[in-house]
């Protein structure tokens, strides 16, 4: 990769939109300098308004191939479908996946992410072993496959191998459908260390760790995993599912006398390294405590709606200064626009008001707030220097297509409102990740080949 200069007539910087912005990218793929009110000179002129690329902070890549397979009800099951019945469908689906199939599915997903404006992904990866539950000869085989898909397609990745040890609160025995997920802390840390050694020095790859949930670990295994990760990398991200379902909260209360977020805040308080995914069901005290902790909440509104999880207490959390970002989780949708839109729309349905999350005195700045806060939370959660067009960050940027009807003649200060709330047409024209153009004029450089491989996998899985 060589250094180069880019010129944007409008670019979304940390303090808002700026005119005539010169972006200088070094040979490593970092932004060396960002200059406002500059002359274009010999720089490459970008074809539309420029945004920082969005981070997708929560992904289970293999689930992209089962999107649409759980949207039916078995005879006699009407009214009884839930997250827990969906989970059984997922267990059956995942039971036979091979490493090669996982890589092909992840590659297709990552192409879709890039084309929609995601430039980085947090891969919350719990599919570790063979169908019989036995580790592969290389214990990190499955993690290597998703990283290989990320490298091939060009998306940045934070790989989060998952610690999954039990089937329920209080160290309940795991079920048959969970056997491919199971590791103890020592074996899981072996995966983390192997990945760090394999990808040391690659600015597009970061490795963290994900205790799956409080129901899948104990206090002792949680401590062992976090302590071991800290020894390997003191700043590495830690992600955890929490309080997604009412039943999860009820089971946690029965086990400990505390709600999930309450238990975590009391026993192992999270900090800025942590991302708590979903956190849907919280009391007012939990909401304030989590916001004050500095941890990021990972919100996945399309999946949370699809699974019937409930609505996150967004207004109270944001009012308390809480950090948040977005992910696509089960990938029934792969669009940052849709995640941000439904984050706000869920609050409108709950409160029967409009522009609920706009903030103080921000009548015209809802899109600005949603996009900029999601950028910051996503970058923090993935532990990578992304999320802003400024010197020292990765050159991850999205060029909007000015020919998109929803953006036509729109004043620059309204572009993000129009992007998020004015229709379902993808407005992304070009995408750069780490200084490398991976999407040009709406097409990914390898999308045909990737799609062909994906179709072969689907034909095999669904036959």
TrEMBL record:
Which enzyme type, at the first EC level? hydrolase
Q: Where is the Formimidoylglutamate deiminase N-terminal domain?
A: 6-43
| A GO molecular function held by the record | metal ion binding
Necessary cofactors:
Zn(2+)
* Zinc recorded as keyword: yes
**Every Amidohydrolase-related domain range:** 50-438
Answer whether the UniProt record assigns the keyword Kinase to this protein: no
Catalytic activity, EC: 3.5.3.13
Any one GO CC term of the record: cytosol
Keyword field: Hydrolase, Metal-binding, Zinc
Q: From the Swiss-Prot or TrEMBL record, give the protein name.
A: Formimidoylglutamate deiminase
Q: Which organism is it from?
A: Pelagibius litoralis
The top of its lineage is: Bacteria, Pseudomonadati, Pseudomonadota, Alphaproteobacteria, Rhodospirillales
